[in-house]
UniProtKB/TrEMBL annotation:
In the C-terminal section; belongs to the PPC synthetase family. The gene is coaBC. Binds 1 FMN per subunit. This is Coenzyme A biosynthesis bifunctional protein CoaBC. It comes from Aurantimonas aggregata. Catalyzes two steps in the biosynthesis of coenzyme A. In the first step cysteine is conjugated to 4'-phosphopantothenate to form 4-phosphopantothenoylcysteine, in the latter compound is decarboxylated to form 4'-phosphopantotheine. Catalyzes two sequential steps in the biosynthesis of coenzyme A. In the first step cysteine is conjugated to 4'-phosphopantothenate to form 4-phosphopantothenoylcysteine. In the second step the latter compound is decarboxylated to form 4'-phosphopantotheine. GO terms for cellular component: phosphopantothenoylcysteine decarboxylase complex. The lineage of its organism: Bacteria, Pseudomonadati, Pseudomonadota, Alphaproteobacteria, Hyphomicrobiales. Residues 15-226 are annotated as: Phosphopantothenate--cysteine ligase. The chain holds residues 178 to 403 of 404 of the full protein. Pathway: Cofactor biosynthesis; coenzyme A biosynthesis; CoA from (R)-pantothenate: step 3/5; Cofactor biosynthesis; coenzyme A biosynthesis; CoA from (R)-pantothenate: step 2/5. Its cofactor is FMN; Mg(2+). Its EC number is 4.1.1.36, 6.3.2.5.
């Protein structure tokens, strides 16, 4: 609805967005996953498209609808998500909103693990690739690389560390301690952490965070000060 009437400040730009969780299989019926509805990532993809960007949305398994007018690549695992993002490049900007599982089972059983009296299976884990860090450190990286940091403690310090470690230009820091009800809820209170400092945004619903972030991305790309 908001498509008409908005200045097309991202016309001609290609932007990649990751959203949702990843699912890391343990066996044919079980998986490891993060809690993520995909609402924030999908809303950001839609808001960027509303400003005229060509958007590739790389989404893990979610139950919400695909945003209209956007190319959606559906993936299950972190490794598939990384491959789909690399496939979508080049891009002018990339926004990594997905709640990627940090670990996967070292081995995926091809047969369902069965219960046996008196024993529990030992689950050996291995680390998944960091998609944001991989892209953030590529020599041909997008001009603007934005990540999210969901934290329950030391929000801004952790966000700042992630900015440096992952080679991002901005981290949207999100307090997900349970009293804020962010997970699965409508509202978000975020801070934008860049090398220039910290911008505190008021409590906004996720679509409003998305619109503001899309406008922020447009401004940064236009300013060329990335
Ligand atoms: N991210 C990613 N690939 C991963 C893990 C995280 O692309 N394997 C991205 C997320 O999409 C987000 C940012 O990195 O934009 C921060 O994710 P987060 O889980 O907060 O950071 P981690 O580095 O995994 O640290 P931790 O979970 O220990 O806080
Ligand atoms: Ca993580």
């Amino acid at each position: 609805e908001a498509l008409l009437g908005q200045p097309q400040t991202l016309a001609g730009r290609h932007i990649v967005v990751t959203s949702g969780p990843t699912h890391e299989p343990i066996d044919p019926v079980r998986y490891i996953a993060n809690r993520s509805s995909g609402r924030q990532g999908h809303a950001i993809a839609a808001a960027l498209a509303a400003l005229g960007a060509r958007v590739t949305l790389v989404s893990g398994p979610v139950t919400i609808a695909d945003p209209a007018g956007i190319t959606v690549r559906r993936v299950e695992t972190a490794r598939e998500m990384l491959a789909a993002v690399e496939d979508a490049l080049p891009a002018d900007a990339a926004v990594f909103v997905a709640a990627v599982a940090d670990w996967r089972a070292e081995e995926t059983a091809t047969r369902k693990l069965k219960k046996a009296a008196g024993t529990t299976p030992a689950l050996a884990l291995t680390e998944n690739p960091d998609i944001l860090a991989t892209i953030g450190h590529r020599p041909d990286r997008p001009l603007l690389v934005v990540g999210f940091a969901a934290e329950t403690d030391d929000l801004l310090a952790n966000a700042r560390r992630k900015l440096d470690r992952k080679g991002a230009d901005a981290i949207v820091a999100n307090d997900v301690s349970s009293e804020h009800g962010v997970m699965g809820g409508a509202d978000n209170t975020v801070h934008i952490v860049t090398r220039d400092g910290v911008e505190a945004w008021p409590k906004l619903d996720k679509s409003e965070v998305a619109r503001r972030l899309a406008a922020w991305v447009a401004e940064r790309l236009q300013g060329g000060d990335t």
